[in-house]
Specification:
rod-shaped
């Protein structure tokens, strides 16, 4: 129902209330009625007031009965608002939980990457330490081998020096013996002097060789001391490297334990993320099932109204259902007529709305019988079956005439009860029809009623037939 139609209806009701209140007041005033001891004028005023209240109340009730959209909006607004607030709260809680989980997962992943980088650095440092240890061990082995060779050379030089010293002593003893026998062997003096000169030269050479060997020995001893010092330094460096290696291994074990704990946290966060993703998918599926075929009511379109008016109404009703908005499917729609809005899914929080449009046209005239049946009265259950068959036939004709399926709900329990009341107390064969109480337009709910039709009980009776009094 459009705004201008509702405004015209309110104005007409106001005029009707004013007119009937005035007429009732004049009628009560002319008859000089007295209620509760009041004067006739006050009684007339009181009657006019109660008449206006009654007319307004019946008008409101009729409005609620005729316009189902308004009735559902008024009666279910609070429940819809509470459901919408609850769904919004759940959605915000899930979004916050998702953001927290994503942040925790990002932090855990950053910690995992840092630990992996530290583990790689520690592994590289360990490899370098192992290589340095091996190199130092090789150098220490080479130095030890060189020291052993130098010690062997030193022992050989010591033996050579002892041999030369013994030889020198023997020669000195030989010279002393030769000096004692010099007098006896004067004739061999020249030969001995020559030989002595040769021995002195050999002694000088031996002395030079001894000094050279002593210098070589001092140099070798200095080299040996230096090598021993270097060996001690290498051993100290080796012990320090072993201590660093143990500390590195302990840090590596601690890093591996922390890495395993971080991986466990990451796995737990991944499981929680998968659980949240499953819950989110289930919520999305429930929301998709809810949005499929969601009934949003009918919209009356005037002669100049079209898709823009439908988009406004669909947006407002989708917001009331808790969605972010609505997106209208289908092509251009132009009134006059009635459009039925139904949900067809949702996308990114917006409800997809499908439109069923029924153009406005006059389908049946007032008093026209849409369906008739001639039958013999029997039990109430049998009579009710006949009336229900008539209702099914009427529904088929209404659908063929272009009425929305929501307008073809006939007969209602009240109409069925009124039809059965008309058959009470009657016997024999009767002819019953479903007659239009007024002109039936495809954009309005049809006002139909069961009526007894006159004439002989045969199919030759034309209709609309006269009503049985």
């Amino acid at each position: 129902m459009t705004f201008w139609a509702l405004l015209v209806l309110i104005l007409l009701l106001s005029a009707l209330v004013a007119y009937l209140g005035d007429r009732v007041a004049k009628w009560a005033g002319k008859r000089h009625y007295r209620l509760l001891g009041l004067r006739p004028r006050q009684t007339a005023t009181l009657v006019a007031v109660f008449t206006g209240v009654g007319i307004a109340l019946f008008s409101y009730l009729g409005f609620l009965l005729v316009f189902r959209e308004a009735r559902e909006t008024i009666l279910e607004a609070q429940a819809i608002r509470q459901e919408r607030d609850r769904l919004k709260g759940e959605r915000e809680a899930l979004l916050r939980a998702k953001e927290a989980m994503e942040g925790e997962a990002a932090r855990a992943l950053a910690e995992l990457n840092a630990l992996r980088a530290e583990r790689r650095e520690l592994a590289q440092a360990l490899e370098q330490a192992d290589a340095l240890r091996k190199r130092l061990e090789e150098e220490a082995g080479a130095l030890e081998a060189r020291v052993a060779v130098l010690q062997r050379e030193k022992a050989g030089l010591e033996a050579e020096r002892a041999r030369l010293a013994a030889l020198l002593q023997e020669r000195e003893r030989a010279l002393a013996a030769k000096d004692r026998a010099l007098e006896e062997r004067a004739q061999a003096l020249d030969a001995l002097e020559a030989r002595l000169k040769g021995l002195e030269e050999a002694a000088q050479k031996a002395e030079v060789e001894r000094r050279r060997l002593e210098e070589e020995r001092g140099r070798l001893e200095a080299d040996l001391a230096f090598l021993q010092t270097r060996l001690e330094e290498v051993r100290r460096e080796r012990r320090a490297l072993q201590g660093e290696l143990e500390a590195t291994r302990s840090r590596l074990a601690q890093a591996q334990r922390e890495l395993s704990q971080a991986e466990a946290r990451v796995r737990a966060l991944s499981q929680q993320t998968e659980a949240l993703a499953g819950e989110r998918s289930q919520l999305s599926q429930r929301l998709l099932r809810l949005s499929q075929g969601l009934y949003l009511g009918e919209v009356r379109l005037g002669a100049e109204e079209g898709r823009t008016a439908l988009e406004r109404v669909a947006e407002r009703r989708a917001l009331l259902q808790g969605f972010r908005g609505a997106e209208l499917l289908g092509g251009e729609v132009r009134g006059p007529g009635v459009a039925v809005l139904e949900g067809a899914g949702y996308e990114e929080g917006r409800l997809l709305v499908r439109v069923r449009f029924y153009p406005e046209r006059k389908a049946f005239s007032a008093g026209e019988a849409l369906a008739t049946a001639t039958f013999r009265l029997a039990t109430p259950a049998r009579n009710q079956e006949v009336l229900e068959r008539l209702g099914e036939e009427v529904r088929g004709k209404l659908l063929e005439a272009g009425f929305p399926p929501e307008y073809t709900a006939f007969p209602s329990p009240e109409e069925l009860a009124r039809g059965l009341v008309q058959l009470q107390g009657r016997t024999g064969v009767v002819r019953v029809g479903v007659v239009a109480a007024k002109d039936l337009w495809t954009t309005e709910r049809p006002l139909l009623a069961f009526q007894l039709l006159g004439g002989p009980p045969g199919p030759e009776v034309p209709f609309p037939a006269r009503q049985v009094p």
